[in-house]
Structure formats: C-alpha cells, structure tokens
C-alpha cells in the first residue's frame, strides 16, 4: 500500500512545511531538509538489552566509545522503574512488546505460552495487521522473541533466530552483525518502511552468574555499548545514503541485584529491590534533533509499543496502559534539559525505592510461585544432570548405567514436576492480580476473515484533511506520474 505522504509531490510538502497549508502546523525553522524527511520511509529500530542497570551504564559506558552515550546525545533518556510489577524477563518484555502491564497480559514466569499474545497482540501483530507493507524483523539469540514474533495470525516478516557462539557475548556479536546487515540493506529499497527489534542478552547472563556489582557485569555493559555503537554507525550510514531519518528506541526489561547470593549464583532479579526494578528508556525520534540530550521524567516501558505504532500512523488500542511518547501532552511536558544529564539521571535512579509493603509481599509470592517450575527445569536440574552425564561418559561398569537411569528418571519426573509447578504458579498469580483485567478491544480477526467492503467515502469519513494552497500551480501536472518518472 502506498501511503499518502508518498504520493504528495515535493511542492505540496514544501507548502505544508512552509505553513501555507493547514494540514500541518509547522514549527519555525523547518527547512527543505525536513521536507525531504517527510517524504522518506519510516524506519523504527528497537534495541533491547536484558537486565541492564542504568547506573552501571552511567558508570562504565557513558563515553564516546559507547552506543549508550551516542543514543543519549542523539535523543531523550529516562531513568524509569517498574516497581509494583514483576521483574522477571518474560513478564517485563511482554509488557514492553504489548503496551500493557502484567495485570492484563498475565505473564508471570519465563515459561513461554502463546495465549497471552493472542489476547493481547504484540507490536509485531499490530503492525502486520494494520500495515502489512511495513517490513518487520526480529533478531535474537533468545527463543522468547522469535516465538512472540511468530504468535498470532500476523507474524513478523523476518524472524531471525541467531545460533552459534559459545558465550552470550559471542551470540550478541552475531546479533549485532545481522542487525547491521539488515540496516544497510534498507538502502537497497529506500521506499519500504521497516521495524526492527534487536536483542542483546549478555548483561543479564553476567548478572545471574556473577551479580550486578561484578567485573563481569561491567564488561558486559561495555560490550553491549560497543555493539550498539556499531549499530548506530550503520544507521548513520543508511541515513546518509537515503536521506531518511530513523527513530531509535532502547530499553531494558529490569535491573539486577548487586551480589551473588546462592553459592556463587545470583538470583539476579524477580523481587522488588530498587536495583531489580530499575529500567530505562531512550528515544531518538526521527526528525526531532531539537530534543537531543534531553531527559524525560515521564517515559515508562509500557510506552514502547504505542510509540512504535504512532510512528507508523497505526491506531492505538483503547486498552493500552502506555501512550505514544512523541505525542502525549503529559509526556511532552515532562521533558527537561539538565545541565548535567549524567547527574540528573543518577538523581532520578536514587529517588526510586520499594513499593508499599502489601504490594511487595504480593509480588514476592507471585514471583516465587510463578518462577518455581522454570527455576527447577532450567537451574536446579541441569547441574545434577550434567554431573550424571560425566559419569555416563566415563563408561564405568554398572555405575555409568545407574547414572544413565537416574538421568532418565530425573528428566521425566523433573519435567512433569516443573509443569505442575508452573500451572500452580499461574493460579497463584491470578489470585494475586495477574491477568485479571480482560481486553476492551476485540481480538484481531483471523487473516482473510474480515475484508473492508464499504465505499471510499466511508473509509475516509473520519480522516478528512485540508489540501495545501499550491499558489496557483497546475495541480494535474504536479501529480502527473509520467512526468515525475521521466
């Protein structure tokens, strides 16, 4: 589908920007460059990093070698908190990618289930349903995101699950290279709108293994900053090649505890300490360089999906908890320009605390119940199974056979037990307020189930616009496709 802005001729856009038409209220100082941008394709890039505390970014990666600093200089940064909500990865990423909190989507553990994303469609589904001409891509070494992007009747166009690499850092490097390749490929098709989500995991892995206060966590933050710098440099290269301006959003799902607490292994997150509920949002809005280096006092992680949809002109769901960051008046009024951005963000981080005691206890119960099955299957059993496998590999008479049999029993019983614990956790979560609010909006129809059959007049009835004053120019000649292509 060709959008209206694509068929407006250059003279019409220049007229709109200059203020001679009433379709756009132009700000003073808009230039011909802005007019060119209005004709360009929309590109939105969402960068995700798991379990990354903003205070560690400010301490270790607030420098010119880091993509974190580059993005802060280019856009607006908010030190946010998810206090009062779950601090597990899948619930938090579900909030980011659906625009609703866990009391609606009901995701309470890291065990993937498709049902929440059919009830509360993801940003991928919403884009593909409303604007299938937008090229949607997810690039991740974690299966959660390829599964979310595949769920529902309107999956993402390009679902790229990265495999390979012996460490999470190596996996992130592969994700980075694929992301760069996809960004640069947009220069070959400059008229196609794109949405990309690129995910980095190594900071969260370092936090679980060594704690958020460790040298390994520091190194992971620095590595992700270096990866993002390469990605942002690729965006700059694509912008220079096509004249497009990209909207870039960066976010983390939660923070991390600072010290290991289980014999060298850190639970990392899941509860309500300020380090765990710490998060951030960075937004660099295409064509809005005037807000570079700013701070938002209002952004939240639930605003990510509405902001992406707004960039493509897609209508908002009535039951979103979030709002578009680029248009909501309250959010716009909460943008400031501190003399020292690093100190201002640090002050904001330090201002956050625990939720009220009742909420804290309720969410702790929910986290323990919801995460029990996942913890058993992914953290408690694997070390035991690996130890038994080492005995099996030694091929010791009788002993190796017994070890192999014990392995089978543990796998079978352990998997069944984990499933039961997960189901119990969902029940406990519901009675503590997760997934209790149903959607207001109807589910997305199945592909092909609903077609528009009304008239063009009916379709445009609620979308009237005023044509610009073209100053007596010959409109037919301006819209002469053959002349434009000659």
Automatic annotation (TrEMBL):
The keyword Signal applies. It holds the Pfam family Phosphodiest. It comes from the Bacteria. Gene3D superfamilies: Alkaline Phosphatase, subunit A (3.40.720.10). Residues 1-23 form the signal peptide. Keywords: Signal. The keyword Chaperone does not apply. InterPro entries: Alkaline_phosphatase_core_sf, Phosphodiest/P_Trfase. One of its GO terms (molecular function) is hydrolase activity. This is Phosphodiesterase.
